[in-house]
Design the sequence.
């Protein structure tokens, strides 16, 4: 005998159909999501590729523009001070000690002396400006600008004073403005005391800071219109796509720019592949110089070097760079 077929209720059939419909819906949703992701990936790749290509083309155009500027001095580029090869004294402990160091350096062939006169927010000399504002006690240091400069001039050497700025580190706007005015007055004090030039170190240059840095230079220029003032700039700033604009802004008030190569840890170069891919990597000083040769020539930049670089000086000079200064 045949068994009686099992009855399937209408509710059971409906439940099975619902599960089947949900399964198909999930599958269609998954397929749709994957397709959308693929389309978006392709679109993003195209857009990114175009942006990378545009960035690479901008960099090439900038280098060509700088080569043209190097070949034909632009009207906005101020007359540059003569190239120097400046040896570093180290921190000044006393006027007599500074004189002895200057004598040793000049006897070793130095024709220019790199003097650190403002470090860590403190004048390294007896400062009338600092004392008038209560920022230095009278007699706090034996170093006087007149005696140190006299020691350098006695050897017929060039006085290349350096000034490590700190005002950009202040986050409070009012305090930063006050500190900026104070440091501008100190720069003027050094220049008017007989320094052949004052080079500003530790300056931050980017899109957010360039206007205020130019204002700082203008304040210095108003205090001492005839002084020779230089500004140090980082390798990163000189690899930025806005470097021509920034350089022109600074050179409205400064006399020259100097490329800061003193920190080995920050040396990087930017490589651009044929497909537009951009990568940054660590590099040696000589490689950075080759990478930035057009930029350095364009702005007649001085090279700022650390004391441990003496063994590389022959290599640097073989590359055609004869304007350098040891700063730390």
Sequence:
């Amino acid at each position: 005998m045949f068994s009686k077929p099992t009855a399937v209720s209408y509710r059971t059939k409906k439940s099975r159909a619902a599960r089947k419909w949900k399964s198909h819906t999930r599958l269609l949703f998954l397929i749709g999501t994957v397709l959308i992701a693929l389309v978006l990936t392709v679109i993003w790749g195209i857009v990114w590729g175009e942006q990378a290509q545009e960035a690479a083309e901008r960099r090439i155009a900038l280098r060509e523009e700088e080569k043209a500027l190097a070949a034909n001095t632009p009207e906005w580029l101020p007359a540059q001070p003569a190239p120097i090869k400046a040896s570093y004294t180290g921190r000044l402990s006393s006027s007599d000690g500074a004189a002895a160091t200057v004598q040793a350096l000049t006897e070793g062939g130095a024709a220019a002396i790199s003097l650190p006169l403002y470090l860590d927010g403190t004048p390294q000399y007896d400062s009338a400006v600092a004392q008038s504002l209560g920022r230095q006690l009278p007699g706090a240091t034996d170093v006087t600008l007149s005696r140190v400069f006299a020691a350098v001039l006695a050897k017929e050497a060039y006085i290349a004073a350096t000034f490590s700025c700190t005002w950009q580190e202040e986050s409070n706007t009012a305090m930063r403005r006050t500190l900026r005015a104070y440091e501008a007055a100190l720069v003027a004090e050094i220049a008017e005391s007989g320094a052949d030039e004052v080079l500003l170190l530790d300056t931050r240059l980017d899109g957010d800071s360039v206007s205020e840095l130019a204002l700082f230079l203008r304040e210095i220029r108003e205090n001492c219109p005839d002084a020779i003032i230089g500004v140090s700039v980082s390798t990163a700033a000189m690899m930025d796509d806005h470097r021509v604009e920034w350089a022109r802004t600074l050179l409205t008030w400064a006399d020259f720019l100097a490329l800061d190569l003193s920190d080995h840890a920050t040396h990087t170069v930017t490589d651009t592949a044929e497909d537009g891919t951009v990568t940054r990597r660590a590099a040696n000083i000589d490689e950075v110089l080759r990478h930035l040769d057009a930029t350095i020539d364009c702005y007649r930049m001085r090279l700022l070097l650390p004391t441990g670089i003496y063994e590389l000086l022959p290599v640097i000079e073989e590359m055609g760079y004869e304007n350098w200064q040891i700063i730390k």
Observations:
- The CA atoms of residues 206 and 248 lie 13 Å apart.
- The chain has two domains: 10-72, 77-326.
